Structures are given as C-alpha cells and as structure tokens.
C-alpha cells in the first residue's frame, strides 16, 4: 500500500477575483511560523478557553537584604477605590495589582517602620517611578523609558515609624504594562533608603497601566479570496480589521471551489511577539484561541458564518515597536483541515485596541 | 496493523453496538457532573460539562440509527438544561448573556446545541423577538456541514422551535415577527436539511452506495418533518402556500437533483398539505414533476396525488365544481404527457401506469365524462404508437388494468364501445393478453347481462374481440393451442351472440349480418363454434318475423324479409359445410328446412333438404353418423308438411332409399321401419297405409336377413330385438288405425317372435326378453281397457 501523494509544500498562489485582494493559502507542512500546527494537528480545541500560561523564566528581582532593620511599605492613596488588574505571575498565580491609566497621577505614602529597638541611619530616602522594559534573552538588562524621582527625606536617622506622602502628577505612561514570553514591560515604584555602610534598603511596588484608544476612524473589513489552484477556493470576510478587546469577530467564509474533503475549519487568534531588532529579532507566537467554526465537508456555494467572542481570551492591544524594543501583533488564522489531517491556512493581521 | 486486524473480528453491527455503548457511557458520565453543577447553580461548570457531554455527538462512527439513539439520550439531558437556563433567567441573569456565554464553547457542535437550547429559553422569555433568535440559530447552524450531525442538529432546532414560531395566534407573533418569519425560518431549515441529506449520498465509498441509501431513507423523516411543521402553521393559508411555501419547497426539490429526496419530498408535499391547497396549486405542483430526475418514480407520486384528490371529491362532492374550475383533468393529462416526455428512459410500464392512474382519477371524479376517458386512452395510444405489440409483461399488466378500469366502473360494454381509442389500445396487447382481455370483456357482458342492440356497437365490439374471432399475426400455430382453451374461448363468443338483441327485425338483421361479417373471417375452426349460435339467432328472428306476419317478399331493398333471412341462413350453413363440418351443417340445414317449412316456404325448405341430402351423400361417410343423420332427416321430413305431393315423394323416396342402403342390417332395418312414419302423417299430411305396411314388411325382411346372417356367421342367431321393435311399430300403426295393419299380421309376428325366442338357436338376451314381455304386457293392458282400442286388440291373442 502506498501513501497518498502529498502535494509539494510550496506556497500556493491563488486566482484573484473581483475586488477581493490577493492572498495565498498556505499548507501547514510549510510555514515560517512556528510550532502551532506541528503540535496541534490533532489536538482538539478545548471546549471553553482557559487562560494560557505564559512561559517565563525564574527571576528574582527582590534582592532580600539580610536582616533589614525596618519594614518599608508603599501605599497608594486611593487603594480602596482604584481598579485592579489581575496579572499572571511567572509561577502562574494570579495577583491583583492597582491599575492606572496613562495620564493618571500616582500618589500615596511610604511608610518606614523600624524594627523594635533598631534605628535606621540613612543618607536620604527617595522614591522613583520607573517604566522598564525587560528582555529575557538579554538577561537582567532593563531599559528604563520613564524615570521620575521624588526625594522623601534628607540624610538622618529614623527612630520610629515614619510616613512620607508622595505624588507623581499626571505621569506620562505611554506604554501599557505587558507580560510576554520574551519581554515584559512594567511600571514600578521604587523606594530607596541609601545607607553609607550597609547596602541600601530597596522596596518595590508594582502597578499596572492600561491605555485606552479611541474608536478607530477607519475600520475596513477584511475580505479576500484565497485558494489552491483547482483544489480549494474560498472567500473570507471579517467585518472589521480592528477590534477592541471585548469585541466580536463576525464574518463568513464562502466556498467557491471544494475539491478536497475538508474535515473541519477553525479560526485561531494568534499573538506574535517580536523582540530585539535586526538580526537579533526573536519571534514568539502563541495561539490564544482555537475556535471551531465548521464541522464536516462543505460543498461549493456554501457560506459559513463566523462569530467569535473575544472576551474570554487574554488579549492585549496591538503594540507596535514599543520603545524600539518589542512589538506584539495579533492575527486571525483561518485553518482548514482535510481528512488526511493536512492543514490549509491563511493568516491575517488584525489590530487590537483597548476601548474605554 | 494489529489493531486493525482485531477490529476486523467484529462485525460492523457489533462494532456499532460497542461504539454506541461507549458513547452512551460517556454521555452518562458527563451528564452526572452536569447534574451536580446544575444542583450547585454553577453555570460555568454546567456549560463545561454539558459541552463535554454534547461532544459525544461529534462522533462519525455511528450509523444513523445508532446516532439517533445517542441523540435521544442527550436530548433528554438538554431538556433539563433548558429548565436550568429558564431558572437562571428568573434569577436575574439576562438571557442575552447566557446566549453569548454558550458561544464561547470552542467546538461548534456542542456550541450550537447549547445555543439552540438557550435560544428556546430566550424566545420564551420574550426578551428578544422570536424571529431574530430563530434567524440567528438557523443561520449559525450552517457551521455544521457534516450530513448526519447537521441533520440531527437542525432537527433539534426544529424540535425546540416548533412551539415558538411567530405563527398567527401564537404568543410570539407581533413583536416576535410575523407568520412570514416563521415560514421563512422553517423553509430555510428545510432547505439546509435537505441539502445535507442529499449530500450524504455523495460521501463515502462508492461500494457502500446501497447501504448509504438505506441509511438515508432512515433519516428522511427528519427532513420531512419540516414540511409537516409548515402545514401545521395557522398562518399558512392558501395564498401564502401558493405564493411562498410551495414554490420554495418545489425549487429545493427540483434543484437537489436527488432521486430519493425528490420522490420522498413530493410524496410528503402531497401527504401533508390539505387537499384544497393541492387543487388550487395543481399547475405548480404538476409543473415540477417533469423537472424531476428521470429515475424518480414519478408515476407513484402522481397517482398518489390523483388518488388523494379523487378521495377528496368522494368525501365532499360539492368540491367537484372547483375541480372543473381549475380544470384538474386537463392539467393532469397535460402533465402526464410532459412527464413522460421528460423521462425518455421511463419504462413503458411507467408511462402506462401513469395513464392508469389518470384514468382511475377520471373514473372517480368525472365518471360522466366519457370524452375524458377516451382522451386518456388516446394519449396512451399515442405513447404506444410505433411500438407495436407490448412485450414487457409488467406494461401489459398495466394495459390490462387500463382497459379493465372502465369496464369495472360502468359494468357496461356499450359504454366502453363508445370509446374510440379503446380498440386502439387493445391492439398493442400481445396475442395472449389480448385474448385474456377479450375474455374479460365477454365475461363482463355475460355477467352483467348487457344487451347489445345496435349494429354499429356490434361492429365495434367484434372489432375489439378480433383476436378471438379471427386469426392474427401473433397467435401461435393452431396445433399448439390447447384444444380445451380454444373451445372455451369460442364458446364464450358463442354465448356472446345471444346478447345481441334488438326487437326491430331490421336492426336485428343488420346485427346478424355484421356479426357474420366478422365471424366468416375467423377460419374454419372457429366457424363451427361461432356460426351455430348465429344461425339459431337468425332462426329466432325468423320466428319473430313470422309472428309479425310480414309479407313474404320485402317491399324495399332495405327492409328485411323472411326470404332474405333464409338466404342469409343458407349462406351461413353453406359456409359451415365448407369447413367442413358436415354433420353439424346437416343438422342446421334441417333446422332451417323445418323453419322454412313452418313459414310455408316450400321451395326454400326443399332447397334446404336438398342440401342436407347432398351433404349426406357426399360428406357423411361414417356409418354411425349416417344412421343418425338419416334419422334426423326422416324426423324432420316427417314434421315438415309444407311440401306438395311431388316434392314430398321425391324426398321420402330419397329417404327410404338411403335407409335401405345403410351398411349394417340392423341399421337398415331400423331406418326402414322409421321411414314408415313418413307415410302416415296425420293432420293434413299424407296417409298411405299401403306404403306403411310396405316399409314394415321390408323391415321384417331385413330383420330376417340379419338373423340369418348372424346364424350363418356365428352359429347362433342374434337377439330378437329387431323383431320386437318392428312389432312395436306394427302396434303403433295398428293403433293409429292403419287399415293395412291388421290384427292377424300382428298375431303372426307375435307368434313368430315367441317361437323364435323359444328355439335353441337363438341367443337369449335379458333385455330383449324384458322388452318382449313389456310389449306383451302392453297388448294385454290395451285389451283390458275396455274402449274402442280394446276392441281392436280383442282379436290379438297372447299367451
């Protein structure tokens, strides 16, 4: 018995028709992008999405000073009322952190509480608001794109509990916080108690930043005819090219020619994170959503509706070239699987934005 | 590989059982967790486990039947889920939210089952217009393109939506939409289901085609149910049916180009929608028929429609007016022609049975319209044109049905004879069947005692019965025909002749002439059977003419006269004589002669006798037959009194002459003593005692000769029968008062007999002894009677 002949894996061109743009449908065995079909060829999409865990590297930033003489606390002034964002940490735990918007004022107080019977001699106390980009492959290197400092105290001694109010008003925080595969962007408050002999006492307080975008003025639909010569021609249409995070993707797939036995069709939401630049660019793709939109083999003329709610998935807005360090882009990947489990797909970028 | 071999051990049925059991167990398992979540009001888990449960329906392994079982199992669970969703709604959760929530499911099939379930609750809550939800559901269901899974999903949709359609009078009407939306929804679901159903046929291996067809027909009711739903909608009135429903359904039926589907759906349409709808949309419905696939068994479809409509009329006769108004018949007949044209491969049997259906329809609905019936037959003839005799046995059967239907309906052949195309249809039957049909025809006439009383009808009838009456091309060689069958058939024809009755002699004569015209073409074998009844009918005519006392000579050429009838008779008997059937014709000649005699036509009677004698001379050679013939001739001659002396003498002379020339002595003897009667005819006949005695004496002589011959050859003389018989004749004439026959002669004869009987040379026969004894007893009885006869007998002495 011989195996069915597998078509050559080159990229397949398509016939253009009407106003639809040209595109190509790619076969899964040949792809510059990634692991997803290799591993997911037979994997079933889960019935309900669970949050995908971010792959991360163990990294401990909090250098525990041996036996610091005091406890340092950083409190936000509106902690009670402020919204919080749930953030997944490296170990998979979800923690809640205060959420700020780009132009918010960051205010609060620092509380330094010496341990009983100890005093803290210092060369000054300061608080910094840092916006950092951390690239994992570039171990330990931080790029601060924002750095604001407030002096809280002149050199002296702290004998008993002391609080310092602080405020950074209308801070320019143009980037959103982001926890990615190879990169993270974070905002942090850093309190430093400088000491002359001993190491400085440093305390950090993370917070999260979101930036809302306005409704895009132009939001064209994505419409394209793709196919493989004499084998499969489809026309797909997504009603928009830009989606907010809780949006619904509505569209349809129209089958112009079907000569293969399709088993099912799914729509994937994929995220591609690119870090670095030039030859040192690292790309990391994840499939965030796998959504079956068709079961069985359609015939010519069939039109299959798409309706995908984005809200269950952990998406961020599209980030383009953040501080020349990284980008995060989103794609809709239409995948058709035939009875021999060959995958045919067409990937299309969409822009995600955060709507107020 | 090993696994595959292992699998092969299972028969597919076992495999199916196993797979089903596995799937059922899993459904059970997930349903258990779902129930727990239901009890805990944990909607997230409910959705999770219900989706897992529904995932079992994603299987491709099960046959439709097994899949149905699985579906029913999950269906029950979904009912509980529906209750839960409804309560969630009461607890304040927005149906719209649940509606969105279930759509987060990653797999389409569980997602859509859940969506339908929520959708039903959503509609019921009236938080959204029914039409919008329905439209969304039916639209989203497109995602399932797998035939079986799609069919069941849509069937589920149809099931849950059935009581939620915005029909007229439904609580969902109004804001929820109009009946138009309801119709639109059902139609769309129907269309999609049918597409899926048809597609099943084209998937999978070619060699499984039959199995697939079987599986498909198991699923057909899922598709058909939609039509039923449509028919149940209050809002679908005639207009909507005509403008929307029917055209759309038919469009789908025609376009799907699938034999199985087209047949089933057409049948469905006919069955589920009311009769008056059909009647009013007949043209549209029939218009679709020719467009169906050539292999569709359309005749059954159409005949069902016709049957339904004819039942409709039967149930409520006042709708007949509507039938006329919409010209139901002409539409049907038109459509029959079209359908047959559209299906060039349709076997002949199909075409004919279509006509049978149409005919049945006409007979039931328009029983009074013979022209319609003839039209149907004509159309059928047109189809058969150029095809010659129909060879196909099934088609033949249908043709017979076609021909029998009017007979059964009217029970009157005369009606059938009015159908000009009837005979033309019959022509297409093969020989055997045609004969069967003719027998049926005749039997119908006989059993209904239909009198046929018009010459043209007779002509038409015999034209129909051609195969029986004449030789025809297809018939087997005569030697091959079973003699008994042949006789039976011909006897039927003979019986038929007696059904030809007309009181007007002229008409009757015409009828007879017509019948003869047909019969003479039948060849000698048939004539023996067909002509005698005709002759007797003619003789009956003679009697009736005689009774009417018509002038002997016909006045005009057209009017019938006795002479003409006799001429006619003569020709017929002559024809029969040529067959040859000498004995039969001889008898008939005699019959005719007697009739002519009764009518006083001496020359005619003479002629008939002459012919009879000629036949006797020339054709009757068997001695026994000669005896019988001669006895007949003598008997007839004796009764015929019309002759003048000369003619009479000639004939009697001839008769006695032949009598004496018979071969065997006893025969001679008997014939001669019978001849004695010829000379003693009372009431106006000749009375010639001399010659009577002559005959008797001659008979005695012959008897003696016979006796001697017998003793010469066998040594003993034969029985005395002849003598006793002659004695009886003597006694007869003696009683009649013939002066030549005297008591002494009798006495002498008696003694002679007695002596002979006692002689040893005579063989004794008990019968003869008894005969003699009773003769003697008779004489004694007469002697004792004491009247004039006794006096006569007084002189005879017996011991």
What labels describe this entry?
heterodimer; A: 356 residues; mainly beta; 7-stranded mixed sheet; 23 strands; elongated; disordered N terminus; B: 799 residues; mainly alpha; 73% helix; protein transport (chain B); Vacuolar protein sorting-associated protein 35 (chain B); Vps35_C (chain B); transport (chain B); Vps35 (chain B)
Compose a concise summary of this entry:
Chain B: This is Vacuolar protein sorting-associated protein 35. Chain A has one helix spanning 36-40, and strands at 26-27, 70-76, 84-88, 94-101, 106-114, 120-122, 125-135, 142-153, 156-158, 162-168, 178-179, 183-193, 201-210, 222-228, 232-238, 242-244, 248-258, 262-275, 282-295, 303-309, 319-322, 326-338, 343-353.
Explain how this protein is built.
The complex is a heterodimer of chains A (356) and B (799). Chain A is an all-beta fold. Chain A has one helix spanning 36-40, and strands at residues 26-27, 70-76, 84-88, 94-101, 106-114, 120-122, 125-135, 142-153, 156-158, 162-168, 178-179, 183-193, 201-210, 222-228, 232-238, 242-244, 248-258, 262-275, 282-295, 303-309, 319-322, 326-338, 343-353. In chain A, a hairpin with a 3-residue loop joins β11 (178-179) and β12 (183-193). Chain A starts with 25 loop residues before the first strand and ends with a strand. The model of chain A is unreliable at 1-22, 29-47 and 49-65 (pLDDT under 50). By secondary structure, chain B is mainly alpha-helical. Chains A and B meet through β19 and β20 of A and α3, α6 and α8 of B. Chain A: Residues 1-54 are annotated as: Disordered. Chain A: Belongs to the VPS26 family. Chain A: Residues 21-31 have a biased composition (Basic and acidic residues). Chain A: It holds the Pfam family Vps26.
């Amino acid at each position: 018995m011989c195996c069915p002949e597998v078509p050559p894996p080159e990229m397949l061109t398509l016939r253009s028709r009407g106003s639809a743009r040209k595109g190509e449908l790619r076969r899964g065995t040949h792809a510059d992008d990634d692991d997803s079909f290799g591993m997911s060829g037979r994997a079933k999409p889960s019935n309900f999405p669970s949050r995908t865990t971010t792959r991360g590297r163990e990294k401990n930033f909090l250098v525990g000073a041996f036996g610091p003489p005091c406890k340092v606390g950083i409190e936000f002034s509106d902690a009670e009322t402020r919204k919080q964002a749930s953030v997944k940490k490296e170990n998979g735990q979800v923690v809640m952190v205060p959420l700020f918007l780009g132009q918010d004022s960051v205010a609060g107080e620092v509380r330094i509480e010496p341990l009983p019977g100890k005093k803290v001699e210092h060369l000054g106390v300061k608080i910094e608001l840092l916006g950092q980009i951390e690239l994992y492959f570039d171990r330990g290197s931080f790029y601060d794109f924002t750095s604001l400092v407030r002096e809280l105290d002149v050199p002296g001694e702290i004998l008993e509990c002391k609080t310092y109010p602080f405020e950074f008003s209308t801070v320019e925080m143009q980037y959103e916080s982001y926890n990615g595969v190879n990169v993270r962007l974070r905002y942090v408050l850093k309190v430093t108690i400088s000491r002359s002999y001993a190491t400085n006492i440093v305390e950090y307080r993370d917070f999260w930043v979101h930036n809302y975008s306005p409704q895009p003025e132009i939001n064209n639909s994505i419409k394209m005819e793709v196919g493989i010569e004499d084998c499969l021609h489809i026309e797909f249409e997504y009603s928009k090219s830009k989606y907010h995070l809780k949006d619904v993707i509505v569209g349809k797939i129209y089958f112009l020619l079907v000569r293969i036995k399709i088993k099912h069709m799914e729509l994937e939401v994929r995220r591609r994170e690119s870090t670095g630049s030039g030859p040192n660019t690292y790309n990391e793709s994840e499939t965030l959503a796998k959504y079956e939109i068709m079961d069985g083999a359609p015939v010519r003329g069939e039109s299959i509706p798409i309706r995908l709610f984005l809200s269950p998935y952990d998406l961020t807005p599209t980030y383009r070239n953040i501080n020349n360090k990284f980008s995060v882009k989103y794609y809709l990947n239409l995948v058709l699987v035939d009875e021999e489990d060959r995958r045919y797909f067409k990937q299309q970028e969409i822009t995600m934005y955060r709507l107020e | 590989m090993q696994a595959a071999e292992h699998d092969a051990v299972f028969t597919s049925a076992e495999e199916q059982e196993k797979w089903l059991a596995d799937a059922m167990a899993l459904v059970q398992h997930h349903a258990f967790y779902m129930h727990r979540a239901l009890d805990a009001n944990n909607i997230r888990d409910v959705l999770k486990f219900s989706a897992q449960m529904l995932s079992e329906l994603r299987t491709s392994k099960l046959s439709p039947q097994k899949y149905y079982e699985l579906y029913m199992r999950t269906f029950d669970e979904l009912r509980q889920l529906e209750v839960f969703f409804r309560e969630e709604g009461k607890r304040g959760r927005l149906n719209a939210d649940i509606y969105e929530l279930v759509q987060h499911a990653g797999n389409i099939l569980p997602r859509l089952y859940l969506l339908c379930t929520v959708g039903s609750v959503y509609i019921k809550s009236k938080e959204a217009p029914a039409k919008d939800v329905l439209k969304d559901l039916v639209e989203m269901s497109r995602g399932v393109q797998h035939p079986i899974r799609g069919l069941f999903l849509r069937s589920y949709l149809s099931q849950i939506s059935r009581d939620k359609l915005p029909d007229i009078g439904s609580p969902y009407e109004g804001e929820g939409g109009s009946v138009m939306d309801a119709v639109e929804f059902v139609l769309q679901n129907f269309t999609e289901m049918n597409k899926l159903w048809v597609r099943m046929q084209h998937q999978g291996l070619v060699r499984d085609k039959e199995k697939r067809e079987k599986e498909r027909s198991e699923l057909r009711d899922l598709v058909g149910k939609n039509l039923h739903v449509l028919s149940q909608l209050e809002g679908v009135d005639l207009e909507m049916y005509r403008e929307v429903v029917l055209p759309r359904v038919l469009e789908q039926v025609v376009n799907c180009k699938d034999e199985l589907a087209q047949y089933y759906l057409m049948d469905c349409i006919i069955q589920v929608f009311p009769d008056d709808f059909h009647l009013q949309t007949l043209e549209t419905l029939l218009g679709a028929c020719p467009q169906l696939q050539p292999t569709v068994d359309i005749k059954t479809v159409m005949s069902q429609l016709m049957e339904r409509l004819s039942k409709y009329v039967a149930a409520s006769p006042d709708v007949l007016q509507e039938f006329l108004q919409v010209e139901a018949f002409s539409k049907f007949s038109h459509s029959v022609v079209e359908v047959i044209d559209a299906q060039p491969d349709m076997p002949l049997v199909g075409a004919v049975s279509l006509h049978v259906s149409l005919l049945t329809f006409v007979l039931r609905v328009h029983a009074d319209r013979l022209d319609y019936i003839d039209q149907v037959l004509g159309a059928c003839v047109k189809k058969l044109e150029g095809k010659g005799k129909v060879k196909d046995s099934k088609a033949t059967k249908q043709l017979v049905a076609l021909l029998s239907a009017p007979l059964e309906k009217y029970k009157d052949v005369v009606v059938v004879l009015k159908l000009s195309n009837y005979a033309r249809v019959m022509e297409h039957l093969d020989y055997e069947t045609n004969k069967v049909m003719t027998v049926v025809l005749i039997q119908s006439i006989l059993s209904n005692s239909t009198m046929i009383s018009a010459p043209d009808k007779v002509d038409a009838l015999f034209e129909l019965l051609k195969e029986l009456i004449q030789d025809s091309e297809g018939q087997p060689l005569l030697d091959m025909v079973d003699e008994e069958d042949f006789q039976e058939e011909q006897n039927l024809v003979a019986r038929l002749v007696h059904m030809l009755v007309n009181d007007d002699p002229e008409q009757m004569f015409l009828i007879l002439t017509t019948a003869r015209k047909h019969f003479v073409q039948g060849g000698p074998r048939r004539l023996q059977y067909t002509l005698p009844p005709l002759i007797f009918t003619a003789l009956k005519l003679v009697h009736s003419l005689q009774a009417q006392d018509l002038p002997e000579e016909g006045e005009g050429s057209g009017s019938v006269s006795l002479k003409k009838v006799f001429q006619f008779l003569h020709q017929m008997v002559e024809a029969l004589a040529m067959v040859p059937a000498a004995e039969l014709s001889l008898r008939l000649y005699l019959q005719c002669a007697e009739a002519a005699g009764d009518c006083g036509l001496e020359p005619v009677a003479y002629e008939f006798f002459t012919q009879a004698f000629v036949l006797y001379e020339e054709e009757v050679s068997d001695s026994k037959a000669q005896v019988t013939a001669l006895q007949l001739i003598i008997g007839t001659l004796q009764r015929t009194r019309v002759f003048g002396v000369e003619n009479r003498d000639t004939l009697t002379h001839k008769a006695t002459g032949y009598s004496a020339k018979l071969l065997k002595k006893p025969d001679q003897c008997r014939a001669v003593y019978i001849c004695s009667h010829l000379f003693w005819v009372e009431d106006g006949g000749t009375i010639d005692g001399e010659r009577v005695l002559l005959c008797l004496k001659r008979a005695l002589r012959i008897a003696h000769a016979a006796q001697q011959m017998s003793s010469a050859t066998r040594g003993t003389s034969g029985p005395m029968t002849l003598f006793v018989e002659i004695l009886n004749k003597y006694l007869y004439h003696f009683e009649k008062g013939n002066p030549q026959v005297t008591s002494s002669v009798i006495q002498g004869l008696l003694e002679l007999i007695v002596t002979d009987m006692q002689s040893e040379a005579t063989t004794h026969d008990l019968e003869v002894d008894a005969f003699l004894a009773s003769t003697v007893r008779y004489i004694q009885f007469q002697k004792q009677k004491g009247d004039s006869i006794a006096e006569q007998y007084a002189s005879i002495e017996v011991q």
